[in-house]
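Record type: monomer structure entry
Structure origin: computed from sequence
Chain ID: A
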Amino acid sequence: MPIQDWSERIVIVDLHDDPQFTDDMTALTDLIEKRNGADVLLNLADVNFLNSSNIAKLLKLRKQLHSNYPGKLRLCGISNSVWGVFLVTGLDKIFEFADDVASGLAGLQMQR
């Protein structure tokens, strides 16, 4: 299952390439709205390509968690090809990253 509750406050999402990326991000934004916020760890280990629509969804999620529904967002498991997209677009400066799921969870828990 791509979206899983790790705790009462933390949600882990295992993302994949489109079209599942879009479906999972839509389900995640709906879940956050329903819960009135959550801390989110996005595992991008199975994502090999990010298009402009994917980037827009990531930015929308970030905005949702920083304004309407409070929560932290961390991305992990990023491949070299996807990391290149973050570097070229400058998104490496606005998102928080972790190497893997375990360190991402530790970082989210320490921020609380």
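Annotation 1: The domain at 3-111 is CATH 3.30.750.24 (Transcription Regulator spoIIAA).
Annotation 2: The chain has four helices and five strands.
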